[in-house]
């Protein structure tokens, strides 16, 4: 073997090795982008991802995708889906649930809908000042 082929082989091995920062960036970003390369540079400088280990598995909350988020159980009964926090279902003066977000044909509601994925999120204040959950 001559010297050139040995150097080519060494360079190819170096290219195939991916450092820790690049492997973490591959997990966090789907495709190549300026954000990904910037994150790799910041990681190599030691500014981000200091405590992240390579073999660290994603938690269940991080695995949640937009599809699973929309499939969450919300309104009672067969309808499921998101709930309208401005239209509670009351029994004996207590709130037992919320109507599903979206109106049925011919249905009239007094307030603008404040839709949330689950009834527990109705406790969080909304962003609207004139509509939505304000308290």
Based on CA atoms alone, the radius of gyration comes out at: 26 Å
Could you give the distance between the termini?
77 Å
Widest beta sheet: strand line-up: 2-1-3
Mean pLDDT: 77
Give the tally of β-strands.
3
Oligomer: single chain
Largest sheet report = 3 strands, antiparallel
- The dominant shape is rod-shaped
**Structure classification:** alpha+beta
Measured as a percent range, the helix fraction is 25-40%
The H-and-E topology, N to C, reads as: HHHHHEEE
Low-confidence stretches: none
DSSP strand (E) fraction?
A: 5-15%
Count of alpha and pi helical runs: 5
What does the secondary structure layout of this molecule look like, with pairings?
Layout: H1 3-16, H2 20-28, H3 34-44, H4 60-63, H5 66-70, E1 83-91, E2 94-100, E3 115-116
Antiparallel strand pairs: 1-2, 1-3
Helix pairs in contact: 2-3
What does this structure look like?
- The mean pLDDT is 77.
- The protein is an alpha+beta fold.
- It is built from 5 helices and 3 strands; from the N terminus they run αααααβββ.
- The N and C termini lie far apart (77 Å).
- The chain has a 3-stranded antiparallel beta sheet, with no helix packed on it.
- α2 packs antiparallel against α3.
- The longest helix has 14 residues, at 3-16.
């Amino acid at each position: 073997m001559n010297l050139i082929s040995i150097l080519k082989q060494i360079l190819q091995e170096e290219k195939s090795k991916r450092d820790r920062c690049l492997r973490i960036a591959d997990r966090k970003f789907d495709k190549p982008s300026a954000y990904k390369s910037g994150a790799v540079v910041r990681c190599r400088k030691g500014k981000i991802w200091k405590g992240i280990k390579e073999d660290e598995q994603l938690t269940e909350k991080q695995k949640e995708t937009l599809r699973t988020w929309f499939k969450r159980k919300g309104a009672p009964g067969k309808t499921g889906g998101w709930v309208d926090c401005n239209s509670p279902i009351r029994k004996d003066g207590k709130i037992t649930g919320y109507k599903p977000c979206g109106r049925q044909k011919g249905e009239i509601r007094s307030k603008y809908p404040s839709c949330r994925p689950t009834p527990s999120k109705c406790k969080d204040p909304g962003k609207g000042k004139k509509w939505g959950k304000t308290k």
